[in-house]
Design a protein that fits this description.
43% of the residues lie in helices and 13% in strands. The chain has 9 helices and 7 strands, in the order H-H-H-H-H-E-E-E-E-E-H-H-E-E-H-H.
């Protein structure tokens, strides 16, 4: 079998952050000797998450078994998940923003046994719905837990408590037409209706300005999808 070196487009700060958490976890549970030290385990997990390397490739590259590579990655994901901010904590930073941008994205998944809830009619594929909040320059501020892909963006935002949280904090928020009816502090563009087939010149101008602001939120989604593991999830969508 041939092997080759590869790079991961991440900083050493990211590696050290994850390695420190793994090291603290091992000390807390008084773990015995492991095949890989915390730094190597963190590197293995980041190679899987960022580059999308399979467990078989990781096992060959790090000279461990496939089951060991899977276990190391799952342990790292659990530690990162435990350290993630919930919406209440993230709102302490969001309420300080000039304004926020709310958008939803679909993360593709493999077909599963109970596939109907995960099929998105809008995207014509199976996936999970993730709500993203970005700041005024398009930086990712917070991402929600995943819901089945058939969930409408407005429903997902309400289920996650995002609309209520943004309205309570009085944060001006820009969102697309999928959030029509959210009300509160969420602003959406004008939409043509049956009784209003055409928009006025002023409404079109407002929509253009709204779109320019909202487009910055796509940068946050692009940042999220630089993690190649999210190109198509091949794990349990509930995880």
């Amino acid at each position: 079998m041939l092997s080759y070196p590869a790079t991961i487009p991440l900083s050493s700060r990211t590696l050290n952050h994850l390695a420190d958490r793994i090291r603290a976890h091992r000390q807390q549970c008084r773990s015995r000797w492991r095949r890989l030290n915390p730094g190597r385990q963190a590197l293995l997990a980041l190679a899987h998450l960022r580059n999308g390397d399979t467990y078989t490739r990781l096992a060959a590259g790090f000279e461990v078994g496939v089951a060991t590579a899977w276990r190391y990655v799952q342990e790292a994901i659990a530690l990162l998940s435990a350290a993630a901010e919930n919406l209440g904590t993230a709102m302490q930073r969001i309420r300080l923003l000039a304004y926020a941008i709310l958008d939803g994205t679909l993360i593709p998944i493999d077909r599963v046994a109970d596939q109907k809830p995960y099929y998105s009619g809008k995207h014509k594929r199976h996936g999970v719905n993730v709500q993203v909040i970005a700041d005024a320059v398009g930086r990712l501020v917070w991402a929600s837990a995943a819901l089945p892909g058939s969930t409408h963006d407005l429903t997902a935002a309400r289920v996650q408590g995002i609309i209520d949280a943004l309205t309570s904090a009085d944060v001006m928020t820009f969102a697309d037409k999928g959030y029509q009816g959210a009300r509160g502090s969420v602003h959406t563009p004008f939409k043509r209706r049956r009784f209003r087939p055409k928009l006025s010149r002023r409404q079109k101008a407002v929509n253009r300005a709204h779109a320019k602001i909202r487009a910055r939120g796509e940068r946050a989604i692009a940042t999220l999808k630089t993690w190649n593991i999210l190109a198509k999830l091949r794990c349990c969508p509930r995880r």
